[in-house]
Amino acid sequence: MNDGLRGALVKIGTFVATVVLLVLFVFGLFRALGAPVPVDWIWRTLTGQFGMSRSEGEPVLRVILERMPATLELVAASIIVALAIGLALGALARRSPPPVARAIDALGLAAKSLPAFWFVMLAQLWVVTHSGIPSAGLSSTDHFDFGDRLAHLILPAMLLAVVQVSSVITWSTTDRDPADLAARLARKLPTIFAVGSLVEIFFAWPGDGRLLFTTLLRGLGPLLAAALIYAAIAIAARTATVADA
Amino acid sequence: MHRRSLVVPILVACAFVALLTAGLFVTNANTIDDIAWKGDPVPPCFVNAALCGGHLLGTDEVGRDLVARIVTGARVTLGVSFLATLLTLAFAAILAALARFGGPVVRFFVTRLGVGVSSMPAWLFLVALVDVGASVRAHMALSWTMLAVVTAAIFWPKMVALLGSAPASVPVVNRFLRDWASIILTLSTIEFFGYGTMPPNASWGNMLSSMEATLQTGWWVGVFPGICIFVTVLALRAIARYSFASD
Question: Residue B1's pLDDT is what?
Fold first, then answer.
């Protein structure tokens, strides 16, 4: 067996072990809190049987997967924006005298210290009242219109990029190893999904984050299912990009 | 690259202690000002000195003084999050000891579990746990201690990864401050959505839950608590980065 295949199998095994341990941990926490979760919840969760959605009348997994493209579109766009801004600021910091470099570093730190729910909401309310940019949803038309989609995407993507810029600046001013950039972004994914769901809530973005908000008060199944699927994506990204982790 | 000075950390610590001590003397956080309040939030004195009625930062939408609520809210936002961070350190120390002395299999499990838990979107995970805890207790909110325990149960992985190698004091302080900052952000988020601390008790997060409704009539209701969260988190992270730089 060649090394590449063996490495891939080890990574897949590590991924599966991590997901199983996480599900067992969640089960244990629920039990510790006193929730009567049956033991077969573990198996059903691992095989994607999250039950039926009460609001949609469809399996929860199907509802989540149907909305996943919108979420991934937002996440991918935000990473592109964060790379563009972060690499530009990083390049500026490298070519500038130390005070300017420190100011850029502090700017990234300040950006990720903003309470996301607060500034995303302020931004959305400001946009509603003060500008012509579309302030909600994925598109305004039924047919595919690239300009219209982009106009809806740009502001949510920029807001979601705010929490990521600091990582890119740090990478750009320190080691600058491409593999390390991927690993940094992979480690950032849980935060990106968490803040992304806030952006989706306030901008009525029809992804899974928005779904979470509408189902938040109607049972925990869908919320937890989506959180676990986000986690599985983040674990996969981390296992794939980090050599030993 | 960074010169270590403890002046800023000590000043910030003093500010936190002063804020928490002041909270013990504030009794009017839930008092409605019937005289100044006419149905809309009372403006801060620097906005309208004639109408403010002595409310330095104005009042919220039901006429409660914002300064008083910010001061008492600090007990939750700073206090509970600090307790949660201490517990995070304790949980991490136990798990790191297990990993270190339990052999390679235990170490593998602890490391992988750490990767798994830290891959969950934190505020969604915490909402799920707090909601389950509350519904088991007949829809009562969790106590502050339980809230801190549940929060620590999902925030330990980064600290374990650090303690696993050779723990030195500066990186541990660095990690502690950054974990504290993340916990403040996460707790504020769930409180904004109505979990955790229940009204009428104030926390900086739940003070913001009415901001969408009040932004037109009184922007200050939704702005000052948010600034408090931002400044606190930024202070903790800046201290971690510039006074306790680990690399």
Answer: 41
